[in-house]
Amino acid sequence: MTRIDAKFAALKAEGKKAFVAYIMGGDPDMETSLAVMKGMPAAGVDVIELGMPFTDPMADGPTIQLAGQRALDGGMTMDKVLDMVRAFRADDATTPIVLMGYYNPIYARGVDRFLAEATRAGIDGLIVVDLPPEEDEELCLPAQAAYYVSITGITGAAAAQSGDVAPEVARIKAATDLPVIVGFGISTPENARAIASVADGCVVGSAIVKEIGEGKPVAEILARVAALAAGAHAA
User: Fold this and answer.
1) What is the structure's pLDDT at 191?
2) Domain housing 167
3) Terminal-residue alpha carbon distance, the chain
4) How confident is the model at residue 161, as a pLDDT?
């Protein structure tokens, strides 16, 4: 059983929905980013999405675009993202980590090398937003969870509405036994609760990254994360 499988099985046994949180690796620097990442499980995060900074983040809104640029300006690299994962795994062997980003850095590194290094570091899955299904042979890593994009557009844009999302979640769940986690446009505990109530959980990214970009102390960022997590878990 993978870490993702085990996490969702435990949540199901507890009657809870999943709270997934995204941060950009190395934003604004590796030390701060790692401190936030290490504090996430205690704040209620069930699955961590860790962004791989890239120079052309076409699916991201301004908040995450700026986060990626801050990380790159600070010298963040793929090697350092994997170093963050290794450092996290030294203290936490159970929280699932999913890398999120774009195919170009993976292709440049070499798919086989990337997958081997990511697996050894402790990565549990990938979200590669610009690799279409018809190119599956390009990057083969079995998916452990299904992610539904709840609005058309870019990250951090309009708020997702549970009434709009519910029929789509039901349609997807009719075709798969995998958990359906809804992301994009979730920025408040109330919104997290509403969206999680019609899915198997929710993802929050831009709202957390915005706090990091504003230079908030790590403790304050994690308090915001905890409030969002509580909203999702109350669904």
Assistant:
1) 92
2) 3-233
3) 26
4) 62
* Mean residue pLDDT across the chain: 87
CA 205 to chain centre: 7
Does 144 or 92 have the greater pLDDT score?
A: 92
64, 206 contact by CB (below 8 A): yes
Which residue among 60, 124, 200, 211 is the active-site one?
60
Helix H segments across the chain? 3-14, 30-39, 62-73, 78-89, 103-109, 111-121, 162-173, 189-196, 206-213, 218-233
Which residue has 């640029």 as its token pair? 69
pLDDT average, residue stretch 145-174: 60
Q: Is 49 a catalytic residue?
A: yes
CA 38 to chain centre: 14
Number of domains in the chain: 1
**Domain harbouring 219, CATH code:** 3.20.20.70
Please pick, among 49, 124, 200, 211, the residue that the annotation labels catalytic: 49
Give the CA count within 13 Å in the CB-facing half-sphere of 5: 6
pTM score over 0.85: yes
